[in-house]
Amino acid sequence: MDALDRSAVARDLHDFIAPALAGPVGPDEDYFALGLNSLFAIELVVFVEQRFDLEVEVADLDLDHFRTISRLTAFVLAKTAGRAGIPA
């Protein structure tokens, strides 16, 4: 991605999460309520840190930040605010 873009962040997150659910997931669907577990939550945190070059700190580990693609997109955008872009 050339610049921090909400739709591109959401698409990257969807592309990571959808295979774990064996299908598409809506931006406001709670994928943990759909059956994803705590092991996936750890994988998701690692993906977010690596993909968006950010650090998820202990204070950030509120499940509400990670429960839906919309919430996680907002979290990523907040953590990366002020940066020129994110890695391609």
From TrEMBL:
Taxonomic lineage: Bacteria, Bacillati, Actinomycetota, Actinomycetes, Micromonosporales
Pfam families per record: PP-binding
Record-linked InterPro entries: ACP-like_sf (IPR036736), PP-bd_ACP (IPR009081)
Residue span(s) of domain Carrier: 1-80
Name of the protein in its database record: Carrier domain-containing protein
